[in-house]
Amino acid sequence: MRLTKQTNYAVRMLMYAAANKEHLSRIPEIAKAYGVSELFLFKILQPLTKAGLVETVRGRNGGIRLGRPADKITLFDVVKVTEDSFAMAECFEDDGDSDCPLIDSCGLNSALRKALNAFFDVLSGYTIDDLVKTRPQINFLLGINEFGRQNSIPVPPVSVPAA
Predict the structure, then answer these.
(1) SS3 category, 129
(2) In angstroms, rounded to a whole number, what is the distance separating the alpha carbons of residues 91 and 108?
(3) Residue 36 CA to chain centroid, in angstroms?
């Protein structure tokens, strides 16, 4: 099973907000930290907000913050709101449109269902807090300073050789 880019960046957005928990996080800053478009992150933000994983604050000084403590948001919580389908085979599909004569008594379906449930169990055992607290340098790596803003990295002046 492969998770979508949307799920990957949803987790990253939550990690950013957890690392910056004392301040509101802004989408442009998160986009810059991860090198993705703001539009893409805004698209991801909608299901996260609807599920209560993220809260938004509107206005000039607005931004986002976690909707609940980072140690209460599991990876499974994120995956279930950002993934469209968990169908690992055609017979997992909801429409039941399969030509397989074994659809009701297939051992593969049972094995894949057990594997999927094991995957969900592992995801349920990890929280956003687990991902952030094991990385003591996360604020530095994301460019977050003590004021909750991205550090400006001064660009050294370019010296032009005299002609």
Answers:
(1) helix
(2) 9
(3) 13
Does the reported pTM lie above 0.85? Answer: no
Closest CA to 53 of 30, 73, 26: 73
Residue whose structure tokens are 């690992």: 88
d(CA 156, CA 142): 21
- Give residue 54's pLDDT: 96
63: alpha, beta or left? (left if phi > 0; alpha if psi -120 to 50): left
What the block records as the tokens of 149 is 């803003």
DSSP type of residue 89: S
Cβ atoms 16, 65 nearer than 8 A: no
Over the stretch 33-80, which tens digit does the pLDDT of each residue have?
Answer: 999 999 999 999 999 999 999 999 998 888 999 999 999 999 999 999
The two three-digit tokens of residue 56, written as one number = 């938004």
Q: Is 41 exposed, middle or buried (0-12, 13-18, 19+ CB in 10 A)?
A: buried
Contact 147, 141 (CB under 8 A): no
Supply the mean pLDDT for the chain: 82
List CB contacts of 154: < 8 A, sequence separation 6 or more.
none
